[in-house]
Amino acid sequence: MKTITTLLFALGLLLAGLLASGQSKSDKMYDTFANKDGVTSFSFSKDMIDAIDIDLGDDDEKNVTGDLHQVRFMSYNPEKGSLNSSDFTKKAIALLPAKYKKFEDDDEDSDAEIYLLGGKKKYSECHVFLTNDNPDGNCFVVSFFGDFNVSDIKKLGAQGKEMSE
């Protein structure tokens, strides 16, 4: 009987691990803020994305290619929530696991912070955080999920910013 209980417990852990592995580690960020005051979020599925052309500029060599599975968007209005814009962004970024790497932008005027999961040019996730200079102004998170290549990540950040306007 003890062996059967141990076997069932081990099987349960294995199934739980398999189910959890299908989700992105960044889902915690969206789940934490779900149904919170001041937060609005939505996502585009693969079918919806296929119907939309994501254009990142005039240069054909600087675009997103590959298979984009999902785009998620979250906005935060500090007038309706308990955090100011900067604190919301810091908390959201802190919810990303350490394996997400910050894209170091040499444009000092950029108000976008970009975090990536993947390699040098091939990524599975890109999260664009946009914080308003005004502490009471809205801030945004735009996340791209899939297997894609980005030849100019700055253009992807600009696309995230455009989607938030």
Describe the structure.
The chain is α+β, with helices and mostly antiparallel strands. 33% of the residues lie in helices and 30% in strands. It has helices spanning 2-21, 27-33, 46-51, 85-94, 153-164, and strands spanning 39-44, 64-76, 101-103, 112-118, 122-130, 139-150. Strands 1-2-6-5-4-3 form a 6-stranded antiparallel β-sheet. A hairpin with an 8-residue loop joins strand 3 and strand 4 (112-118). The longest helix has 20 residues, at 2-21. The model is unreliable at 1-22 (pLDDT under 50).
Characterize the biggest β-sheet. Answer: 6 strands, antiparallel
The helix fraction, in percent, is 25-40%
Please state how the strands of the largest beta sheet are arranged side by side.
1-2-6-5-4-3
Number of strands: 6
Which residues sit in consecutive blocks of at least 5 with pLDDT less than 50? Answer: 1-22
Question: Strand content of the residues, in percent?
Answer: 25-35%
Going by helix content, strand content and strand pairing, the class is: alpha+beta
Return Rg in Å: 18 Å
